[in-house]
Amino acid sequence: MYKTSVARATTTSDPFNAIAEPRRRHILELLAGEERSVGDIATALEMEQPSVSKHLQVLRSVGLVTLRHHGRRTMYRTNPEALRTIHDWCGMFSQYWRGQLRRIKAHAEDKR
Amino acid sequence: MYKTSVARATTTSDPFNAIAEPRRRHILELLAGEERSVGDIATALEMEQPSVSKHLQVLRSVGLVTLRHHGRRTMYRTNPEALRTIHDWCGMFSQYWRGQLRRIKAHAEDKR
DNA sequence: CTTATACATTCCTATATGGGAATGAGTCAA
DNA sequence: TTGACTCATTCCCATATAGGAATGTATAAG
Lengths: 112, 112
Prior knowledge:
2 copies of one chain form a homodimer.
Chain A: H1 15-18, H2 22-31, E1 36-37, H3 38-45, H4 49-61, E2 65-70, E3 73-78, H5 84-91, H6 94-111
The structure holds a DNA duplex.
């Protein structure tokens, strides 16, 4: 007999989770600095349109992309500011990897 | 009638997915610059030991942490170098957010 | 008004996986 | 050897979610 479990936490409201999906990273890469329509993205990445729309919704819900309606088309662009959250978080560790590089370098020089 | 689906791709072999889980980020934060045992982590973060072990396995599988056996204990430490992958990926967009800041600043100055 | 275009949304299925509980495995002390 | 510790692993369940198919909705064109 097993008791109830809680399963994993809801995460689609967190940029870290949003970029965990490779497809979504591809979309962001494609959109980097260039506004594009949904159909454009689908064609460029060889994905089904509904799939693209759904990924864009996830990205939008965490603020990673913004949209603009233009006639029948919906133009998306990245909101790179939202990526700073993640960039800065990783940056927390940069002091350590820099320290590591120093140690590696020092070690290499000791051997000479 | 619905055809077979493929579900989401396996991701636990990708640092982006590894840090998508809040608990795993907490572990990494705790380990930042400080080696710790599994029990230590569990106590500090108020998690069950098996849960910590499993998260550590995920982090280890993508190279985000390394371990060292010391008697009965297993000491873990971060491998911050692995975070550079993510940091660099976000960095791809930094030119855009810097551009955005310039635009915002310019716009603010125009209004004065 | 009718039709085509461009997206968004919904329904369904299959899969990945986090947590809980129990158990296995290795190490140290007496 | 026995028992206590420290982790890792396994089994199970419940949930989140990606993809496929079909459908809904809004806009533009004829």
